[in-house]
Amino acid sequence: MASSSDRDILPDSVMPVHYDISLYDLEGGGDFRYKGLVKIELQVKHPTNEIVLNAHRLEIHNVQLSTQGADCKQEDSLFNSDGAAHKM
After folding, report:
1. Residues 48, 37: contact at Cβ < 8 Å?
2. Positions of E strands within 1-88
3. CA atoms within 13 Å, Cβ hemisphere of 30
4. pTM of the predicted model over 0.85
5. Mind listing the pLDDT tens digit for each residue in 16-49?
6. Residue 60 Ramachandran class (φ > 0 left, ψ -120 to 50 alpha, else beta)
7. Who contacts 85 (Cβ-Cβ below 8 Å, separation ≥6)?
8. pLDDT(4) > 60
């Protein structure tokens, strides 16, 4: 098991509640690759201006944000990658 010094600790303002993962186009061999879709249900614990996700060695092509009962404009959603984490 990795210690906390081996990985980034995510902010505690947003916590994942449920993951829905679909994988397809699996390619075996030396350089294992796949495509997929991940839907993450989040619980916002504290007001925040960003959502930070661990995404080491993942290529993320599209991000969508939807809310229930919250005031969030789609144009306010930005997708930035710093290599180790993706911030939205």
Report:
1. no
2. 14-27, 33-44, 52-54, 80-81, 85-87
3. 0
4. no
5. 999 999 998 888 777 778 889 999 999 989 888 7
6. beta
7. 8, 10, 52, 53, 54, 55
8. no
